[in-house]
Amino acid sequence: MRRVHNFSAGPCTLPLEVLEETQGEFLNFADIGMSIIEDSHRGPSYEKIHQNALSSFRRLTDLPDDFTVLFLQGGATLQFAQSAMNLLAENEMAGYVNTGVWGQKSLEDASRVANVYEVWSGQESGFTKTPDSNELNIRQDTKWLHITSNETIGGIRFEQFPDVDIPMVADMSSDFLSRNIDWEKFDLVYGGAQKNLGPAGLAIVVVRRESLGKHGRNLPTYLDYQFHEKNDSLGNTPPMFPIYVMGKVLDWMEKNGGLVEFERRADIRSSLIYEVIDKSDGWYSSPVATGSRSLMNIIFHLPDETLENRFIEEAAALDLINLKGHRSVGGVRTSLYNAMPVESVEILSSFMKDFLKSNG
Ligand SMILES: *Cc1c(COP(=O)(O)O)cnc(C)c1O
Hints:
Blueprint: E1 5-6, H1 16-24, H2 44-61, E2 67-72, H3 75-87, E3 93-98, H4 101-113, E4 115-121, E5 142-148, E6 150-151, E7 156-157, E8 168-171, E9 186-192, E10 203-208, H5 225-230, H6 240-255, H7 258-278, E11 297-300, H8 305-317, E12 320-321, E13 332-335, H9 342-359
Helix pairs in contact: 1-6, 2-6, 3-4, 7-9
Bound molecules: pyridoxal-5'-phosphate (PLP).
Pyridoxal-5'-phosphate binds near residues 77 and 192.
């Protein structure tokens, strides 16, 4: 069977074990005589999958009881506005840290439905670093601060989460469950599943229970978090297939050592690439400030575009694929999410060294 080394930024590579297990039980799930996606979402088989996924998520993240976990549709994109609608009353405001493409989008969408402002912008520095806490211009009476923990396109992350005296709301789509989360600091954390946790079609929202139901708005059913929280995310038909596969990914993560292990693997994988960049005397170059380097999405350039294109072509010939940088930043981007095997990154790292030797 052919399996490439898939460095896609999302959707992305998933654990082979999980895919095989899914395939094996697809036509006849647990001897019910049909696939799980044909069964009722109110039946005992799906109910078990659903509750297991919720509890695995809680165990893995060491989630305190005062948070609830919601499984929603609409991706992380819907959460840009939905989180603001649910956590801000008409007369309240929130501050947004604009660290790049995703930080900007969250600010724009939230501003369509609530009173929000920019506390910091990375525009001047070309979105190549995340701010220190003392650079944030947080106005008085700001209810909470929104951050993007990892900017998937710019390749930067908050190595330390900001140290502020208001709660935070975070888009963790592209580094979800790749590191420990200090829940004390957050009122809400959200992310799409398709980067670190499973197939597309599912967003996970983790929200402090006491912050719910205070918005005073007349929200449509689906947009109100309380509807989902009251119904354990089974108020309407949930995205059964992504939840089912994510449940398997979460089990796989637990079996493999949990967040501590995945944090360690993220360090190993990213170091394999950053080391080649740092030892290349500037032949491979990263625009990102050292203290803000993402462990999930690594962006780098070669001396010119012709070399970059050749690099991507020759890599693809070795089944190292999806390495083209996002059209807005160019260059090369390698995404190293939870399920990316260290061996695949070793192959990429060797290829980078070989390519430098023959072209540098
Ligand atoms: C991919 C991504 C999104 C968008 O996610 P969708 O599920 O496609 O809406 C938002 N934020 C970040 C940081 C991302 O990486």
